[in-house]
Task: structure prediction
Amino acid sequence: MWTERTGRIERTGWTEPSPGQRLAAALRRSPIYVDPSVASALPRAERRRLIAKIAEAPAPVFVVLVPLVEGGTWSDADQLATVVHDRLGRDGIFITFGDRGTDLVAREWGGDHQARDAAWAVRLDRAMDGAPLADRLSRIVDLIISGTGTREYERVSAEIDARARRRRESGGAPPGTAPDDDGHYGGGLALPLGAAGLAAAGVAGLVLWRRRRMAAALRDADGLLLPRTVFATASRAGEDRLREQASREVLAFGELLDDSAVPASDERARALMTRALDAYQAAGKTLDAARGVPDLAGVLVLVDQGRDALASARSVAKGGPEIPAMPLCFFNPLHGDATTGIDWRPLGTRRRLRVKTCRECARAVRDKRTPDVLMDARSGRDVPYYEADPAQSVWAETGYGQLRDDLVHRVLRGDLNRNA
Result:
């Protein structure tokens, strides 16, 4: 309306649309929205070609490319996709940047066209390393159109496993060692610490995974608990191998959840299933935001907690007992199951903690030796992860879930973003 008092048009009963509403409005005009700050990554000619391809998809596909910035309007891929879906009021496949750089992720409402697997297949495929954004988007849409996203993900995973097998067969294990009955190499092998130690942890830690689990018969029958041994998966740097393995474990856990049904009438089973779903969401958030080996170890911890909860939910729903959870080694979760409880006093303090560790670390503490600790880079130097400032590290604050029982909750509420 026109007001003489101000001499300009003023709107009454009108509020500025929210960021989600603006994105939804843009997607009603075109299935691709590109924020001006990243426009150069997907030129207009490439957008037109991609729009033509999207028209062939068996379900609506929306591409929303906006920066995900900690503390910004959009800081989380799940948040972005969920808000835009709600504001758009239309089901479909939503492709966005992941929480880590320009990796792409996909979420789908109202169907199962293997969109999530398609995005992960492109993300893990070495042939797509360094490919332009337009090529990666086009490949994801191709997999959605052909309905082969899951098959392609399985193919890429098989290639990763084959590379790992070739590496092991050609001497990838530490020289002069053989696996013992726990699947460990070189009983007393001391891994180097410091910057090189982080890479070594990513390589060697993965062959030190699972040993004793309660209710082994249930694990063998249903495949719910995390496998006893998780091997390094590729011939890249340690962190890259660990990231690939963590990605596969998150996806495998998601597939288990998709195939799991718990009767709604059993309150305890429902609570355990909720815990499993929350752990899965937390693992995915951590994977997308992971900056190094400590975060990737956290992904495996969260998957482990989630699988334990899922196994218990399934058991309770069938009238059985809960499956006793077993944490992973306090000093380094990549060592696997924490089978031994010890009293431990952190250096420089008088406080004694009761923690659970693997046998090797427990033996080191008893022998007054330094355990093989997972290191974290802080302020330009490497320190044991638990010596990082708890205000900046959710892993230090919770001891990867051993010092506090609310690790999943803290990750979901955003505490991981404090890591620096």
